[in-house]
Amino acid sequence: MKKIRIRFFNINLGPYSVQGQDINIKYHPSLIDRVFEVISALMVIAGCVYFVVNSGFENNNMLTGFLVNLIVCLLVFTCPYTPVEYIRFPVRISRQNIVKQYIMALRLMRVVNIFISLMLVFNALSITFPWANPAIGISVTAMLLSIMVYYIFAIRNK
């Protein structure tokens, strides 16, 4: 019987990886991780409901944008389940820091997923409401700020 191997996306946060090391981490998401996932899922659902209620499936351009947004959200939603060998970290990985670095990278992916979901919802809202355009910029800024905070914590905990 042939073994089926699922290929994950590489998460590139820096130059260091665990390739060549015998490290196998099984991480079960904590309550805060589940809360992040629920928040991002609710935002995607809210965007879908708004799209269907507002314009339905009459406009082909809106439908295409909706489907692209949904696929992006689903792909980003799977990133926190990436195995450790597919992540490149910003600091050198050892047996002492791998668990902490791995958990921080997965939490970063969950937070980035929230901000990407926010951007997509605000993008859908910006068609009708002009106040949503600055909210997209705020979402991008918050996402970049969270990535900077991750790098600070990753370097401090190396």
Name its key features.
158 residues; 61% helix; mainly alpha; 4 helices; single chain; two-stranded parallel sheet; 3% strand
How do the helices and strands line up, and which of them pair or pack?
Blueprint lengths: L10 E2 L18 H24 L5 H19 L8 E2 L9 H28 L6 H25 L2
Parallel strand pairs: 1-2
Helix pairs in contact: 1-2, 1-3, 2-3, 3-4
Describe it for me?
- Helix 1 packs antiparallel against helix 2 (60-78).
- This protein starts with 10 loop residues before the first strand and ends with a helix.
- The protein has helices at 31-54, 60-78, 98-125, 132-156, and strands spanning 11-12, 87-88.
- The protein is an all-alpha fold.
- A two-stranded parallel ribbon has the order 1-2.
Structural class: mainly alpha
Number of separate strands: 2
- Would you tell me the overall average pLDDT? 81
Percent strand equals under 5%
Instruction: Based on Cα principal axes, name the global outline.
Output: elongated
Quick overview:
With 158 residues, the chain is mostly helical.
